[in-house]
Write a structure and sequence with these properties.
Layout (H helix, E strand, L loop, with lengths): L11 H7 L4 H4 L3 E6 L2 E7 L13 H18 L7 E11 L7 E11 L3 E10 L4 E12 L4
Antiparallel strand pairs: 1-2, 2-4, 3-6, 4-5, 5-6
Length: 144
């Protein structure tokens, strides 16, 4: 199988570098694993991750999960495609955390030529499941 990105561009360092100055960088997302079938990342909870009510803002978790699933999608786009876009993001929230680290693990459910579906589990550094996400991605191709 031939991918748009070669193996040497599928590294945590490469993804962290590409995120500099973008939203994933702003939330403090750090990618730690970049296998085509599993991506992992985390962020350390800071005050700017909190909602006005004092709890962890759901948008912080959504940003982490959607970004990680997007990164994994990019790693699995086959030659001939020009990119992707998220077409659906489903989230279930189970718990919150006010401090510590949030870990994310994205794994594929379906990797096809026109769509990809990824699940992402978010947990606290205490091992508590915070949320589950499912991201559906549309693989973009040039118009004929």
């Amino acid at each position: 199988m031939s991918y748009t990105l070669p193996d040497e561009m599928i590294t945590p360092e490469a993804y962290n570098q590409r995120a500099r100055g973008k939203l994933p960088d702003h939330i403090g997302m750090v990618v730690t694993r970049t296998d085509r079938d599993r991506f992992e990342a985390y962020f350390d909870i800071r005050q700017h991750h909190h909602a006005p009510n004092g709890f962890l803002h759901a948008g912080s978790l959504v940003t982490l999960a959607d970004s990680l699933c997007g990164y994994a999608t990019v790693a699995n786009i086959r030659d001939g495609a020009t990119g992707f876009t998220t077409i659906e993001l489903k989230s279930n929230f189970f718990a919150t955390a006010l401090e510590g680290r949030v870990f994310a693990v994205a794994t594929p459910i379906h990797i096809g030529g026109s769509t990809q579906v990824w699940d992402c589990e978010l947990t606290s550094d205490k091992g508590k499941r915070l949320a589950l996400f499912r991201c559906s991605q549309l693989v973009l191709r040039p118009k004929a």
